[in-house]
């Protein structure tokens, strides 16, 4: 075998796609992960990292495209890290996602391959996102053709768009995006122009100076409402600047129904404000999942792909198999999507959620949907369940637990509590097959895994959602 080390250039044929979205090739069984490739491509790559059991590489030249490859829609494809698989036909993406879920679960051992069902497709493959988070950046990502130029049309030290994965602090100025509504892109352009000509600079992630930090746009195709949140660093002129921007946005894009100004002094690059002020409108928008109506505030979680989330909710309902007499616990309940979707078939549903805005929204959403048997409890699940038996005695022991944690999965102490509480059924909704596999491994001490249904909420990206159904042994 060629002796591989960092910097080695080598020709490879991509065999498969791996967890995280990279192409996978092998030399004599040794695995090499290659950024931004799809199966069937023959590529000249440079090794960027060499470990004992694998290497990482990036493409120097595409020598021959995959017979499966299709033309990507977006001008930013290949630069923006949002859509890695726009050049792979959608049915292939679904197959890859199903297999990725299986590969993660296979490590648990003792499972048969057909426990993971074929992935259910998203009804919309483009323009499916109802939320987009853009970052301001003080270092714009320069396109290859710009590197040659002495005079640039756009400044180097300002960008509003998406972070380039692996290049900390670099932001790609987004001009088009096929995952979100056209009005979201129009808002992006208006805000970019305003911020660029304002007296304050974008936030610099290196020295933590600067003002403009994030633009978050949420919209609803069904209600036509749009929520815009601008997150900035604290500054004495912030209110007057945001008021000027508000006047401009209302004049240029009258569909915006509400504008929120969030202030964040955090060093971490996360689009969560420390404090918020509603500049105009109600501070939330309303969305539909099938016939259910939900109010969503700027800081609260809502599934990003509404039409596919309806399929997910149907899968959860079917998996719970409720008859009207059950107590259901909905762990990580967000704005109440699952709890409210299940309430009419249950005796009672109790939601547990960390974020205050989400709990307030969930309570309002129960009312909006004529549901009066849901209770939402605020707090960190690992604390809320510390005395789970006492809680179960006073609130009712769960017959079914639905759990839908963030990517990190459930805290081990929460999994242990479930093993003590022993609900007859657990329906685990996961957005990360790796942490799903880790948690299932623990749960299978007392539970039998009946099936895992992947659902695609994020076409063209390596993300996949899955519903795992567990029954007490
Ligand atoms: C993937 S979302 C699921 C939301 C909801 N099930 C839905 O379908 O809309 C995960 C939720 O868990 C909440 N969360 C994160 N960590 C938590 C914790 N330690 N305790 C309770 N809730 C938490 C987040 O705020 C978020 O609303």
Largest sheet: 8 strands, mixed
Tally of distinct domains: 3
Low-confidence stretches: none
Looking at the structure, what is the overall shape?
Answer: globular
Percent of residues in β-strands: 25-35%
**Estimated radius of gyration:** 24 Å
The CATH homologous superfamily name of the largest domain equals: Vaccinia Virus protein VP39
CATH architecture of the largest domain, by name, is: 3-Layer(aba) Sandwich
In DSSP terms (H or I, runs of 4 or more residues), the helix count works out at: 11
Instruction: Report the top-level CATH class of the largest domain.
Output: Alpha Beta
Q: Order the strands across the largest sheet as they lie in space.
A: 8-10-9-7-11-12-13-14
What would you say this structure looks like, in words?
- The chain has 473 residues and is of the alpha/beta class.
- The chain has three domains: 1-69, OB fold (Dihydrolipoamide Acetyltransferase, E2P) (Beta Barrel), CATH 2.40.50; 97-124 and 305-472, 3-Layer(aba) Sandwich (Rossmann fold); 131-289, OB fold (Dihydrolipoamide Acetyltransferase, E2P) (Beta Barrel).
- It contains eleven helices and 23 strands.
- β18 (348-353), α7 and β19 form a beta-alpha-beta unit.
- It is globular, with a radius of gyration of 24 Å.
- The relative contact order is 0.10.
- The mean pLDDT is 94.
- The structure holds S-adenosylmethionine (SAM).
- The site of S-adenosylmethionine (SAM) has 20 residues, from α6 and β18.
């Amino acid at each position: 075998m060629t002796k591989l080390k960092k910097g080695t250039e080598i020709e490879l044929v991509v065999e498969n796609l791996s967890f995280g979205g990279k192409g996978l090739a092998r030399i004599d069984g040794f695995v090499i992960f290659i950024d931004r490739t799809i199966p069937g491509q023959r590529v000249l790559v440079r090794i960027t990292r060499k470990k004992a059991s694998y290497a990482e590489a990036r493409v120097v030249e595409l020598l021959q495209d995959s017979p499966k490859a299709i033309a990507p829609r977006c001008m930013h494809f290949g630069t923006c890290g949002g859509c890695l698989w726009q050049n792979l036909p959608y049915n292939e993406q679904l197959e890859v996602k199903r297999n990725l879920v299986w590969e993660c679960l296979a490590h648990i051992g003792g499972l048969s391959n057909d426990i993971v069902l074929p992935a259910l497709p998203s009804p919309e493959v483009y323009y499916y996102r109802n939320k987009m988070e853009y970052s301001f950046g003080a270092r714009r990502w320069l396109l290859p053709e710009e590197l040659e130029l002495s005079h640039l049309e756009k400044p180097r030290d300002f960008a509003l768009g998406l972070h380039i994965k692996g290049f900390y602090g670099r932001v790609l100025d987004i001009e088009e995006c096929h995952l979100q509504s056209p009005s979201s892109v129009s808002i992006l352009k208006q805000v970019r122009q305003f911020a660029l000509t304002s007296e304050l600079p974008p936030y610099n992630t290196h020295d933590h100076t600067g003002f403009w930090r994030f633009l978050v746009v949420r919209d609803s195709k069904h209600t036509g409402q749009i929520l815009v949140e601008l997150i900035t660093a604290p500054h004495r002129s912030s209110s007057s600047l945001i008021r000027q921007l508000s006047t401009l946005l209302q004049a240029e894009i009258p569909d915006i129904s509400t504008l929120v100004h969030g202030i964040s002094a955090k060093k971490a690059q996360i689009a969560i404000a420390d404090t918020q002020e509603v500049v105009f409108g109600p501070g939330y928008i309303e969305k539909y999942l099938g016939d259910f109506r939900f109010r969503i505030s700027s800081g609260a979680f809502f599934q990003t792909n509404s039409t596919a989330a309806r399929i997910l909710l149907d899968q959860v309902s079917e998996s719970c198999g409720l008859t009207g007499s059950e107590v259901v616990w909905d762990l990580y309940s967000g704005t109440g999507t699952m709890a409210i979707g299940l309430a009419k078939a249950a005796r009672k549903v109790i939601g547990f959620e960390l974020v205050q805005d989400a709990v307030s929204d969930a309570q309002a959403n129960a009312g909006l949907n004529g549901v009066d048997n849901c209770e939402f409890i605020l707090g960190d699940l690992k604390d809320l369940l510390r005395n789970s038996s006492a809680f179960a005695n006073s609130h009712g022991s769960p017959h079914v637990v639905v759990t839908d944690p963030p990517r990190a999965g459930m805290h081990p102490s929460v999994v242990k509590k479930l093993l003590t509480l022993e609900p007859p059924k657990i329906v685990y909704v996961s957005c990360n097959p790796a942490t799903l596999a880790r948690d299932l491994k623990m749960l299978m001490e007392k539970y039998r895994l009946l099936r895992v249904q992947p659902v695609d909420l994020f076409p063209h990206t390596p993300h996949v959602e899955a519903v795992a159904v567990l029954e007490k042994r």
